[in-house]
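User: My collaborator sent over this chain with a note saying "see what the structure looks like." That's all I know about it. Can you take a look?
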Amino acid sequence: MAGLNTYNDLQTLKQEDRYIHLTGLTADNAPAYFLMDAIATQGTEKASRVQLFNGVASDNTVLDAVLRRAAAKVHINITAGADVDFHHFADDPSSRGMYYVRNLPYQTYLLAEAKEAEDITAEVRNTSKSDSEYFTWNPETDSKNVSLTTYVYPHSWSNTSILEEETCVVMNLPLNYTDDQGNVHIYHNSWYKIPMTDDKMFERNNYYEVNINLNRPGAVAETTPENVDNVYYAVEDWVPVSVNVG
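Assistant: Without extra context I'll predict from the sequence alone. Here is the result:
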């Protein structure tokens, strides 16, 4: 703050929280509090101009401010259909409910008015796999419902590849699946990619809710994109061809 000379300087300041998705938890490096900001007003008419000192040292200045979080909250509800039951395989340590956030936006401007959400392309990263307290995986108690709460900073990927740039949750939900013939299939691993919003954008101080009815097993192995070398593209001339029908 000592290096700030103008309001424009303040607008360019950013904050990074690489573990924003775990805010409030006791996990290592997780922020204990949310970054918040507000524009203060004074008096009953809520005028935007505020006089901090009127020249009388004994007079108090009361500022009214509605604080808003810089982060957006995302809550995912997953309900298993009739053919699926979530299951915990205690004898298989490699099979457990877990998740990670792919393309987590972890950087933001200090002030909300610094830039509109649709113009923000934040720094993103993939988090470590976790089964934090925000992940309600407990098949012994409830084999039909799982939920996840997480937090992200404002970010837009509307002009980029959805396949590569979309912010999403990758989740493993081990389960038993009953097919149409009544046969039960056991899936020690069942991976899903879950979009966190269909707007291709997160706005600060917003709440996003994703409701999923899950009735099919996912991928048996976690997959990651592979780079393909020596790929060449060519543009061919359009050649009309007559096709006789009849």
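A starting point for your reply to your collaborator: The first helix runs from residue 7 to 11.
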